[in-house]
Amino acid sequence: MSFSRIFHFVRFSFFDSCGKIKSKQKFEIRKEAIVMKINLEVNADFDLEGNILPRAITLEDGRIFEIDRVLDARRAPSLKAGGVGIRYICRICGKVVNLFNEEGHWFIEK
Question: Which domain holds residue 18?
Answer without folding.
Answer: 3-33
